[in-house]
Every structure is written in C-alpha cells, then in structure tokens.
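for the recovery benchmark. tokens below, seq after
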C-alpha cells in the first residue's frame, strides 16, 4: 500500500483489516502502509481512544460491541467443531471427586457432554440445554439450578438460582462467556446471566477456567460479568494471531490452545 494515504484514511484501512483478520501486528501494518512502526502505534492509540480496537503487545485486537443475543439454536451451531474440541479439553481438566460449576451457553454445553460418562464428578449448572442433551445412560452426577428459564439461551436465571448456588462450595468453575477482552473482562448481553455467573465466581474455592472460541475474544457485550483477573485458565483455539495471547498471559492466565479435529 502507498504511504500517500492521509492519516484518517490509513486508520480506516487498519480498522477494515482488523475487521477481516481479528488481530494485526504493528510490524506487518508498517510494511503494508510503508510507514514507520511509530506511526502505526500512534494510529492504534487514536483508534483505541475511539473504541475501535484494543491494543496488544506488538499489535491490536478488533473490538466488536454486542447489543443483543442470537437465538440459542444459531449460537449452538456457530463454530461447533471448535466448541466441541474446547469442551473436550476442559473436561479433561476435571478430576474425580470434584464439584464443578458450569454456566449456560453452547461452549459450556460441550464441556458437560464430554463429562457424560465420567463417574464421581458432580456438576452444578443452570445449563438446562445441556441437561436435555445428555444421553439417558449418563453417569454424571448433575445438579440443576432452578429459577426462571430463558429459552433464548437454554439456561435458568434469577434469585432462586442464586440462592441454590449460595449453598454450594465448588472445587472448580468452567465458564463460557459472550465476550472477553483484557480491559473489559468477561461480558454478557444479558444482565441476569452475568449476575448468575458472577455468583458462581463468588462461591468458587478453586480454579476458574474460561472456555471461549476465537470469535468471543475481542467482543464486548453490554453487561460486565467479571474482570480478567479472576481467570486462571483460558481454553481457546488458535485462529487468532499469537500477538493477542501475551496480554492475557501477563495477567497470570494460562492459555491452553486447541486445534479443531
């Protein structure tokens, strides 16, 4: 690309590239636009101030603001193969004898399904969709959290669900999220779901694992769930540029990358 672009044009091109690729590196952008890395860094600072991206080590991450939610049937099918392998890897972390909180969502559903024939594990969840999808001969000890059923997300929410969670001390939490960035943390488009996941986090006395495919990283939804600092492990796929991961790792998170089968 030519370096004859005016700064506003170059910044819009950067946003367009981010929208397509999800993440970019400063050195690559400098080569593409034939300008110095310092110039690109200034562009990224301005774009971040305008809420167009989140800067990372050596680059930037696209930010997508989410106002509402898609129907559960649509979310369940999106990136299904990635969610299956993420769910399988998360299930492998759970040891016999554990009591585990797992929240709603299609990626969390895959974790529960991969625990279907494990004995000696107790899962406490508001994920009604997962309970309905388990095979009849499941060995899993499943405790369903009652409350108001949201068919849009296949889970329960509300005060009744919170009261049940308040009586349980889990050894681990495995949580899905609608949005995840270093600065915004975990977010959800639904206030009640954010509140219930936050309640799970308040009760946890062990490891917090977040399961999220690459499409969730860089998304910011309307309701804050929790800061990035609560997460111990992030299981995700490798479809994002490696420049994104050091920012998460600097907060103390262990990144577990998986590959689709």
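predicted aa per position
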């Amino acid at each position: 690309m030519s370096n004859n672009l005016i700064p506003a044009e170059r910044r819009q091109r950067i946003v367009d590239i981010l929208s397509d690729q999800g993440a970019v590196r400063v050195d690559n952008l400098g080569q593409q636009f034939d300008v110095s890395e310092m110039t690109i860094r200034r562009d990224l600072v301005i774009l971040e101030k305008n809420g167009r991206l989140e800067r990372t080590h050596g680059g930037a991450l696209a930010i997508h603001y989410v106002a509402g939610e898609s129907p559960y049937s649509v979310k369940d099918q999106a990136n299904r193969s990635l969610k299956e392998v993420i769910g399988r890897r998360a299930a492998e972390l759970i040891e016999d004898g554990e009591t585990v909180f797992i929240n709603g969502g299609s990626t969390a559903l895959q974790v529960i399904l991969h625990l279907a024939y494990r004995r000696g594990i107790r899962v406490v969840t508001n994920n009604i969709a997962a309970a309905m999808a388990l095979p009849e001969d499941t060995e899993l000890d499943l405790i369903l959290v009652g409350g108001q059923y949201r068919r849009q997300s296949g889970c329960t929410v509300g005060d009744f669900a919170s009261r049940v969670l308040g009586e349980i001390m889990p050894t681990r939490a495995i949580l899905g999220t609608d949005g995840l960035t270093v600065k915004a943390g975990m977010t959800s488009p639904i206030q009640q779901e954010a509140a219930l996941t936050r309640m799970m986090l308040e009760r946890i006395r062990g490891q917090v694992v977040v399961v999220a495919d690459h499409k969730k990283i860089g998304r910011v939804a309307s309701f804050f769930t929790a800061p990035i600092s609560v997460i111990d492990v992030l299981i995700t796929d490798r479809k994002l540029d490696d420049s994104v991961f050091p920012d998460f790792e600097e907060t103390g998170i262990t990144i577990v990358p998986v590959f689709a089968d």
